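Thread: Modeling a multi-component assembly for a lab meeting

Hi all, long-time lurker, first post. My supervisor asked me to bring a structural picture of a complex we are working on to next week's group meeting, and I have zero experience with this. I have the sequence lines for every component (661 residues in total). Could someone generate the structure of the whole assembly? Inputs are pasted exactly as I received them:
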Amino acid sequence: MAQVNPPHPNEHSPETHLAPIIEVVDLCKSYGSIQAVNGVSFSIATGEVFGILGPNGAGKTTTVEILEAMREPDSGIARISGIDIRENPRAVKSIIGIQLQATAFFDRLTLAEIIQVFASIYHKRVDPLALLRQVELEDRAKSMFNALSGGQKQRFSVATTLVNDPLVLFLDEPTTGLDPQARRHMWDLVKEFKSQGKTVLLTTHYMEEAEELCDRVAIMDQGEIVALDSPDKLIDELLSSGFHKERAEKAANLEDVFLELTGHDLRDA
Amino acid sequence: MNWQTNTTWVLTLASLKMWYRDKQAIFWTFFLPLVLMVIFGVLNFGDFGSVQLGVVDQARTPASRSMISSLENAEAVSLFHQSASGDARVAILEEEELALEDGDRDLVVVIPPDFGQPGGPVTVEVLFDVSQNREVQIGQTVVRQILDEMTFALNEVPFRFGITTRPVFNRDLRFIDFLMPGLVAMSIMQMGLFSVAFTFVQLKNRGILRRLLATPVHPASFLFGQVVTRLSVSVLQTLVLIAVAVFLFDVEIVGNIASILLLALIGGGVFVSMGFAISGWAKNEEVAAPIANVVALPMMFLSMGFAISGWAKNEEVAAPIANVVGVFFPRSAMPDILESITDFLPLTYLIDALRNVSTDGEALWSQGWSLLGLGVWLLITFVVAVRLFKWE
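Re: Modeling a multi-component assembly
Sure thing. I ran the full set together rather than chain by chain. Output:
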């Protein structure tokens, strides 16, 4: 389905009605003899929540890192908001927000101070408290990063990506290691970003997360995109091919039981 | 200029804050050098460094006796005399010459028969051991001073004596006076190497540098703040150590304080670059620590060791000092090649320049050789640091 010519903002794949904010054409990247990304093309519309799924080593991290301007592709074109990432990585970085997997922040600076540091990088003036309030960490403004729980760290990490009011948010496995309450809270955040008109590109190993959040998902394997559509359509496609589950799905699952018993409130105070 | 949105300024301020809040780092930055200074200040190894001076009185006049008693009273001098001639204060020339050859004297003053008699000029001969440069300089200065004083007191024709001296060590040099610049240099080295290497390996390992790489921050802005912090600390260390030396132990700083601080900055730059190079190369703290030690310890042993052995006259004197400091190789036990290597170490350049400027009162611009050495080291370590530096 890859378009051979670099797509023009106006003529695009039928399911995206808005102008694409991310355009990727025939992206390739190899490490030695390993072809990590092999001719990947897709585009993401403004306001879309886009998921990249795939087993470990499928090339999703490399693809995302190229889009984040943290890695150079061997060939291919990648543009965010019309800016060529290879030509102007710094301009791209200033309009996106990147939440890295398992990241850390400076010791001996409070959350509010770290926010100030990040804001200064974008030459922005922000109210750290307001930003922390968005991720429900206002009361921890004077805490150090290391004193936070896992879920709080993840939320703070998201807060640091918001200082420049980014057009695109990259979330790399944002809920890995979180308890169900914290995961639901992160989902709410993603939905809120969507409602604010931000574009979100996320990677995840949790299929129910992709189903819940993503407008479209790309499933990668061995450096290539093997499927790209909305979760619904992908499931329908599978069912129409004659697939059926061994065990019928119940109307609730164990996580619903867990949340019913323990409530939805965040447990990391 | 808007301070709040100026990246470099905010990053520098944050870096200073982080350093200030790291009480453990502050403790180690000041603790060891201060402990060493207090030990040497209290114990005062002053006598060990005194000049072993022999005197041969061929005049035996009131003037010559007055000179001998002046020499006896000079604090930096231990007066030696053999009693073969019957007068306990006076030795005969041949015996003193032998003592000089044996290393029991640093220099011998020969007072001529016509000393103090009207007329003149007379020549006071000073025999000296060429290997004891420092002591000879002190001794000559003392002798010259005493002769000058006597000349004015007796209102006689000036004396002349056979060798020229440089009026540098005209004060009582105690071990702490001598050691202070070494301690300053050593703490700057420790701070630069260890604090930078550890901090950056941590920042790299924990993904903090990677998080910064995900922003449009210019690496220079971030590194600038970090370097400014370390250099400020090296200046602060220098000021604290000097203040303690001056106010607690009466160490006299002859040199220009601005020159001393400038040297602290240059030295700090060399060792901070080295720390960056180590942090770029080392994968984690377990690797960084031994590497930093492998760089620091030999340098400390060699540069400080030779510095101390330059002060201590012989091994009997040096050993007790060495036991306390833990940084000493007797000069005689060292192969020449090591001494040559030591001459080119950055710590040696820094110690030499700091000492010459602070305790000897020489001008900064006269330290061309040391400055050149430090400059070359700064260039080398900077290039290596830039090449090895990695964000992740």
